[in-house]
Amino acid sequence: MRARIVRQRRLAEGRFLIELEVPQKGFAKAAAGQFVHVRIEDSCDPLLRRPFSIHDIVSSSRRPAALLKIVYEVVGKGTELLSQKAASACVDILGPLGSGFDIKAIGRGGKVALVAGGMGVAPLYFLAKRLVEVGCRKSDVGRPIVLIGAKTKAHLLGEKMFKDLGCRVAIATDDGSKGFKGFVTALLEDRLSAMDDGPWTVCACGPKPMLAAVAAVAAKHAVPAYVSLEEFMGCGLGACLGCAIKTASGYRRICHDGPVFDSREIIWESQWNGL
Asked: Domains in the chain, please, with CATH?
């Protein structure tokens, strides 16, 4: 479908927020963790679409269109071209695609910790918003806590957005320029070590090494963890098998069976040795 760019703005060096006008009927019920597959240009260069997590959906009862928000980083030709597009330009999108987070299951698990590494804040904001909407904000016990990791303070994204939702936010930077100095998984370890404050459910998105560490910490404390995998994709529909990963139940397709998986299902070692 054709989607018109409503606005685009720079969030930080190389990071952008783009807002697209999309049919409300197709996106109002999009799940947190799902994604859209975007064709940047109406040509063969770049050839493949680019997958982007749904950052937010803003619906209106007075309009047939909804506002789809995407947060992305310029990492190559496709995203560079996207960052140069102005309001009123159009892109072609497929979506919503994939399987997202199970909001009801997560909401029943007591406290919720969202762990974001770098651009992993993109889908987790939409998740936090959905959790707030279904009632996790009714008490301090149910209010999501968000742990954000970044290389430096300059690379940090999303802190204010999560706080505006009423979430408690803790920051970790590799160089200590803001918050805790070290990896965000150390903050998760500290939080889960205080098991006297109730059961937890962990949801995470970020680089694979971080997600593997999140899975290990969650397993150590016997709490469920659901991870949203970031991956290059070919078709985005599960046909090309270009984003297959090894799991306890066999090979799964990130674009079709995920991108959200139970961390206990993934064979993490295979992600660094070519499956």
From this structure: 2-97 (2.40.30.10), 103-272 (3.40.50.80)
Which residue from 76, 55, 48, 68 is spatially nearest to 11, judged by alpha carbons? 55
Q: 68 near 36, Cβ under 8 Å?
A: yes
- Rounded-to-integer distance, Cα 202 and Cα 200, Å: 6
Question: Which two three-digit tokens encode residue 240?
Answer: 């090309």
Measured CA distances, 79 to 3, 10, 18 (Å): 16, 13, 11
Inform me whether the pLDDT recorded for 10 exceeds 70: yes
The partner residues of 146 in beta bridges, in order of sequence, read 114, 169
Q: Which residues lie below 8 Å from residue 69, measured CB to CB, with a gap of 6+?
A: 17, 18, 19, 20, 54, 55, 56, 57, 58
Distances (CA, A) of 168 to 61, 147, 148, 191: 30, 9, 11, 12
The tens digit of pLDDT for each residue in 168-206 reads 999 999 999 999 999 999 999 998 987 656 678 999 999
- Mean of the pLDDT values across residues 48-64? 86
Q: Are 187 and 172 in contact (CB under 8 A)?
A: yes
Q: pLDDT of 163-178, one tens digit each? A: 999 999 999 999 999 9
| Nearest CA among 171, 173, 155 for reference residue 163 | 171
- What is the rounded CA–CA span in Å between residue 215 and residue 204? 9
CA atoms of 141 and 215, how far apart (whole Å): 23
